[in-house]
Amino acid sequence: MAEDNDHQPLSKRHSIAQPFSSLRKKIRASLSHRSSSNPIIEDVELIAPSLPPELLLLIIDYLALPYHLAAFAAGCLLSRVDRESFTHSMLFEARSNLLHTTRVCRSWNAVATEILYSKIFLLSPTQLLLFCRSLKRNPTLCSFVKQLYVLQPQHKSTRLLQRVPWAITPGVGDIEFPTLLAACTSLETLTFTYCPKRPSVYSSWTSGFMERSGIGAHLKELAIHGTTGEEHKPLEMLNPAISLPLLEVLVLKAVTLNHNHQFPVFPKLRTLRIVLIPRVKVPGVVFQLNIYATNFPSLRRLVLQDTNASIHVDEAVLRNLWSLRMCGTSERTMYNAWVMKGYLENVTLLEFHLKKLKPGRFMVTRYPPALKSLVLCITFSKRRDSEVIKADVLKDFQMSDASDEGYLGV
């Protein structure tokens, strides 16, 4: 019946086609006056619509649909008047509708502001400073922050710092920010770029920062992105003394680690993604990144992509994996050794990225016995017959118990 209703003329659907005057009267009739004040916005009307909470949440959730980060990266700060309010300065066209919703009335403002601050993107030191000012001015907003993305565009960082020198005021990144994060008790996701060689207000994210901010007690997802093609100082944030009892997802991309780096214990970590880890050149020392079961007792999904460093994964960790994603030449060598020794007996999902594949060269010839899903991403070095390439890749391919649940994607 729902599908038939979608094809009906607009005049036959509910009250959408009613005259605007009658619809406006019904809305006015449903309004109720409230005298309570809201500390977030003080200049809104005192009239609040008495919509059911479920309907109000549906409307605002629709306006807060997932948006792409590119919409933010292409934007810039708004007018000088809006810069004083972080609610205006951090949002660009991607969330303008949700921003306007906060100005409808007090009840709408409360719900929309909570959703608005639940996912924060900081793309410049200026926005970071405004974010700190906003939380300091109104501590109520701290409890709304659930996902925080502190991203520094590489091609804009130097220009922003030169144009806005007051954005790197001493104390903003070292004192205020950790203190304010400590008040964000609902923060579960944290993603940030790590650029220690650049004059950034959030470059000194070390173990001391983690301790002062206190975010480790409730953090569930942590992603650290370095800068490819540059030499960095080793990351000091994830030392063995750090406690992350609830962390479930850890992403390390282009991050430099010490040659003898030891991970802390992640009791609930389920997903580990390691991408573009450079080798640390120390004379007479062989760099090796160790992933032991004592540090990752609950690991179920492992992603290794273009890791130039030597990586050792404990046998106990491999036997507990359900999902494995590999990309790169060294990863292919590791996978073949693991599957031949029978370490991947519980892997049901296998993803491979095949780069510059040539006919006659098979990247995968053995498969885990419990495999149910196989995903192959193929990158051709030259124009060749794709069907021939696929046939070579899938030579001798067999999946046990895949008649009903098996999935193959190429």
What can you tell me about this protein's structure?
This protein is α/β, with parallel strands linked by helices and 410 residues long. It folds into two domains: 70 residues, no CATH class; 288 residues. Helix content is 29%, strand content 18%. The protein contains 15 helices and 15 strands. It has an eleven-stranded parallel sheet with strand order 3-4-5-6-7-8-10-12-13-14-15. A two-stranded antiparallel sheet has the order 1-2. Helix 12 links the parallel strand 5 and strand 6. Helix 3 crosses helix 8, helix 9 crosses helix 11 and helix 11 packs across helix 12. The longest helix has 13 residues. It is globular. 24% of the residues are buried. The N terminus and C terminus are likely disordered.
